[in-house]
Hints:
The structure is a single chain. Helix 4 crosses helix 5 (150-160). The protein has a 9-stranded mixed beta sheet with strand order 1-2-4-3-5-6-7-8-9, sandwiched between helices. By secondary structure, it is α/β, with parallel strands linked by helices. The protein has one domain (27-332): Rossmann fold. It has helices at 2-22, 27-33, 89-97, 117-132, 150-160, 163-166, 192-197, 234-246, 262-265, 277-288, 303-307, 329-332, and strands at 39-46, 54-60, 69-75, 101-105, 138-148, 175-181, 220-225, 250-255, 301-302. The protein is built from 12 helices and 9 strands. The radius of gyration is 19 Å and the shape is globular.
Amino acid sequence: MAGSGARATLVGTLAVVTVLVAGCSPTRLVSSLSPTAHLERASDIAYGEDPRQRLDVYRPQGRTGAGAAPVVVFFYGGAWQRGDRDKYAFVGSYLADLGVVAVVPDYRVYPEVRFPGFVEDGAEVLAWIERHVEAFGGDPTRVIVMGHSAGAHIAALLALDERYLQSRGVTRAVPRGFIGLAGPYRFDIDRGRLAEIFAGDQAQGDSQPMNFVRDDAPPALLLHGESDRVVEAANSLALHAGLCAAGSSAEVIVYPGVGHMRIAAALAPPLSFAGRSDEDVARFIARVTGATHEGPASDALTCDESLGGSQSAAAGRPSPGPSAHMGVAVHVKTQRP
């Protein structure tokens, strides 16, 4: 039996590798291979009236009554045009294994809505968390927002632009930390599909997280792959530089040889060999929530190093200034979830 179990795991892992090598979207397959039987999952919870305004909650079994746990809400990517929370069950499973209550929502996308509709949905998720997450064993005063690709853009605006939560009366579920995986934070929106998605922000002001850096922003962990050709790593380096210059706390890690999807896929147990983003995310969550005082990874570029002039920790190159051109627009149109 042990041999057959190991063989099944190997076959499953090889199947995932095959999907990755072929360039296909691996998320649904990865979720099907990620263990969830040891978790409690509450599915298809409405946080609004639209069919896409639904979320799932993941938590360790027996969480209720065991003391309120930190909450991490994860926004998936999909070029602001597509996505399915069921494909990201592996992220909910990974986060719940860390002892947190994980919230994975769907949100409205283009062409149903344009900016800022999808960010407003993210704010509605946090309003739902403030009102209801205690019933799932979560602490609404210890919330971290996290996202991959377009989802990281949404999470960044929720963490940095205070107007979204203020307009909804959110006072407790204000993000205490932000985790961005391969996110676009300063990019051109004046051509192609992006010009349609962000048509309401012609001046490129409200849609750009870089424009909202401030000294009291929540601590940020920015992870990026050096080989990412969908959203260039310069985005994370620039946001890190901007946050540090504003007096906030941020760290950035650029992984050599890692592309756009691999950085998120490494969160799944079957693909933990694909990278170490799972370890870096776990370390940051533990530190921000007070579970540990362990510092950043040795190759993380912190604000102290950045302001001190040492830029070599992040992919061996200096961080560009906030006004640098990011070159994201030509890639996002063809991004797959």
